[in-house]
Amino acid sequence: MKNNIAQQLGFWSSVNIAVLGVIYLLLLIINFSTQGFTFPPSQFVQLSGGIITFLTIPGLIVQYTAIRYTNDGENKILGSLGIIFITLFAATVSINRFVQLTVIQQGGSSPDLARFLPYATGSVMFALEMLGWGFFSSLAALLVAPLFHGSGVKNTIRWLFVAYALFSFMAVIGYATELPITAAAFIAWGPILTALAVLLAVYFRKEN
Hints:
Layout: H1 2-35, H2 43-69, H3 76-107, H4 124-144, H5 153-177, H6 184-207
Helix pairs in contact: 1-2, 1-6, 2-3, 3-4, 4-5, 5-6
């Protein structure tokens, strides 16, 4: 029964993340096709991305918890550590996005908010975003990757988790060193994360 509940929650959380991921990718495609690779993105993209990210965070916590409870073997400590790091990710990123969706929207263009803008130069909140996505979520992905072994979907999920971690680490290193490899974030947190969500939904459905 415990595993069955975990599989169901894992499936629906993965579906939720996949749907939000597709919306996010469509948003980026439309933005890049109309405005090019501009930074920071338009206010509409920033607001929409903030809402999508905020809604994705609970799904990731549920997803990683489901991964842990559908893998009760000797490597279950990896799943437990994955939950810890994805929770740290959720804490740092949700602070940034909640401030963006409340204080920033209410404060308008006040100069006092410059350091709190989600994509401004020297933004404290953007640093939190990179810490969460680039560092904590990378560690979570690396920890749960070994739990998927075998052939087919499981093996693909494992290597997608590894790829996600590598591109995320590249993004945070690029941010810390002011190198253009920060753009790797768009690959990790867009197509790779969405592909992972789709395959994890298939995995949980098969296990159910």
